[in-house]
Specification:
mainly beta; ten-stranded mixed β-sheet; about 50% strand; flat
Length: about 200
């Protein structure tokens, strides 16, 4: 009897881990090529086309986390992935767009763009690309913003907390913030590399 009791006591921590893992996976949604393939809990997702409801192959939307959302709309080869509670990702009205979030309360959006990416790795941060081609907005940090709009081959990057990197109406430019509290803006010029500090 004592041996059996020891085995049961030894397994209890693993049983708790299994329950926790099962609970964590309940908020999830996956949509591909115009249809929701799986939805559970409070996570939502969609992959739909404009007007007719058609969408080209290669579209993927994945949301994982409480109240997370991932949506792809009107385009081909678009991907939206949101992993984290209260996070969101959207890619729409373009082709080859990727919006990715890994963090709580963060958001990534790519709209009206071609072959462009918005990525967040952190909490309460935002990355966005709008009306751009071959551009990137990337955040690695909390409470930060990276944005690239109206241009070609631009890179807005934040690797810090409470910082901002923005590029607007520019081509072939970079804006990089690598210290907490930095603000970098490139606007109405081309071929510029700005950084902070």
């Amino acid at each position: 009897m004592e041996k059996r009791l020891l085995v049961v006591v030894a397994l209890l921590p693993f049983a708790g881990l299994a329950v926790e893992t099962a609970t964590a996976a309940t908020d999830m949604c996956v949509a591909t090529n115009g249809a929701v393939r799986h939805q559970s809990g409070t996570a939502t997702c969609s992959a739909s086309g404009a007007g007719s409801g058609e969408v080209e192959k290669g579209t993927v939307a994945v949301a994982k986390g409480a109240n997370s959302s991932a949506d792809v709309f009107a385009g081909s080869r678009n991907k939206a992935i949101a992993i984290g509670d209260n996070s969101s990702a959207f890619a729409g009205f373009g082709g080859g767009q990727t919006a990715m979030v890994r963090g709580d309360g963060s958001s990534a959006r790519v709209t009206f763009s071609v072959d462009s990416t918005a990525k967040v790795h952190g909490d309460s941060s935002v990355a966005g690309v709008d009306r751009a081609s071959r551009s990137r907005a990337t955040v690695h940090g909390d409470n930060s913003i990276a944005a690239a709009a109206r241009g070609v081959d631009n890179r807005a990057t934040v690797r810090a907390d409470n910082s901002t990197a923005t590029i607007v109406f520019s081509d072939d430019s970079t804006a990089t913030a690598t210290a907490d509290g930095c603000v970098v803006v490139v606007a109405f010029v081309a071929g510029v590399d700005e950084s902070c500090p």
